[in-house]
Amino acid sequence: QIQLAESGGGLVQPGGSLRLSCVASGFAFGNYLALWYRQAPGKDRDLELVAGISNGGHSTNYAESVKGRFTISRDNTRSTLYLQMNNLEPDDTALYYCNVRVEGTNYWGQGTQVTVSS
Length: 118
Hints:
By secondary structure, the protein is mainly beta. The protein has strands spanning about 5, 10, 20-25, 35-40, 50-55, 60, 70-75, 80-85, 95-100, 105-110, 110-115. Strands 2, 4, 5, 6, 9, 10 and 11 form a seven-stranded mixed β-sheet that branches. A four-stranded antiparallel β-sheet has the order 1-3-8-7, with no helix packed on it.
């Protein structure tokens, strides 16, 4: 079955870096747009779209809040999506999810927690 598994989160000081990974299985990952979302702590916080990348990796887009600091990429030979996060800020603290929509159905991983704190 289709599965997405994120990893790479952790506790980092402001200004630090992390690289998130999302390994996909059960479908032809290279055929689909892939996205990173995040949900900040607190009740009823909405999911925020952080970044997206086209199936071939040639087109990317970012939320204004992360432009110039985050880089989305993918390795279709490894069915893996990445998010390189640099110059992290406390407001980047959130649960980060990868998302792929396959044949009209949204698939999500379990999320990986990123905490930015001194």
